[in-house]
Amino acid sequence: MHQYLFFIGDFPVRTYGLVLSLSIILATGTGYFLAQREGHGDEKHLVDLGIYCGIAGLIGARLWDVFFFDWGYYHYHLTELFNVWQGGMAVQGGIVFGVIAGILYCRRHHLDTIRLMDTLAPAIILGQALGRCANLLNGDAFGAPTGGSFGIIYPATTLAAHTYGAQPLWPAEVWEGQLDMVIFALLLMFRCTSHARGQCFALYVMLYSTARFGLEFLRGDYAEKVLGFMTSAQTTSFFAFSIALFFFILLGLRQKRKTPPYPDKRK
C-alpha cells in the first residue's frame, strides 16, 4: 500500500487522487459504451456529462461527509475543509450531487433523463467499486477492529492507523468494492430483461443501499448513531431503499398497464 506514488518537489502525487480520477474516467467510458449500444445517440453527451457529474460528485461527497459525519471536528478546523486525503468522502453524497448534476444537464440539453439514468446505473456502481480501491490505498473508509489476529493492518501514516494503531481491522472498503462489482454484473443482467423505464436505476439504489446498510456494522471510521440504533449512512440507506422500492414496484405496475416492454431498441 503506497499513499504516495512520487513527489514533484514537495508536492505529493497521491495514489488516492489517481485511482479516484481513473474511477471517473472508466465509469464515463463504460457509460459511453452502454449509451452507444442503446442506439439513441446519447453517447455524444457522455464526456461532458462525466465531467460535470464527476466534479459534482466529488464536491457532494466531501460536503456530505463534512456536514453529516464530521462537522463536530471541521467547524473548529475550517482550513482543513478540503484536505480530502485525510479521509472524508461520503459516497452517498457523491451519488446525490452527481445525479442532480446529471438531471440538470439532461434538462438543459433536452435528453431523456429516465432513460439515461437506467443506462448509466451500471457505470455509476462500477465507478464506486474503483473508488473503494482508492479508499483502501489511502487507508480511509476502514473497518472496526476484528478482535483477533486477522484483518488489515494499515501503515502508520494512514488515518486508520492513527485511529486504531496496529490493530487488525475488518476489510470493510474491500468488501464494499467487491459487492459493488457484483451489483454491476446484476444490473447488466437486469438490463437484458423486459423492464419498465426507471426500474434499472431504482434497482441500483436498492442493491447498493442494502450492501451499504450491512457493511456499516463493520465500519470503524465513525460510529455515531441516529435515533440510537443506526449510523447516518444506515439511515440514508434505509430511506433510499424504501423510496427506490416504492418506485420500482410503481413503475412495474404502470408498465403492465400502459407501455410496451423496455428496453425496446438494441443494436
Distance between the termini: 42 Å
Query: Can you write the helix and strand succession as a string?
Result: EEHHHHHHHHEEH
- From the spread of the alpha carbons, the general shape counts as globular
Q: Regions with pLDDT < 50 over 5+ consecutive residues?
A: none
Mean pLDDT across every amino acid position: 87
Gyration radius from CA atoms, angstroms: 19 Å
Give the proportion of residues in helices. 55-70%
Describe the structure.
By secondary structure, the protein is mostly helical. The chain has helices at 15-38, 46-68, 71-74, 91-108, 113-138, 159-164, 172-191, 199-215, 232-258; strands at 4-8, 11-14, 225-226, 230-231. The strands form 2 sheets. It has a two-stranded antiparallel ribbon with strand order 1-2. The protein has a two-stranded antiparallel ribbon with strand order 3-4. Strand 3 and strand 4 (230-231) form a beta hairpin. The radius of gyration is 19 Å and the shape is globular. The model has no long low-confidence stretch (mean pLDDT 87).
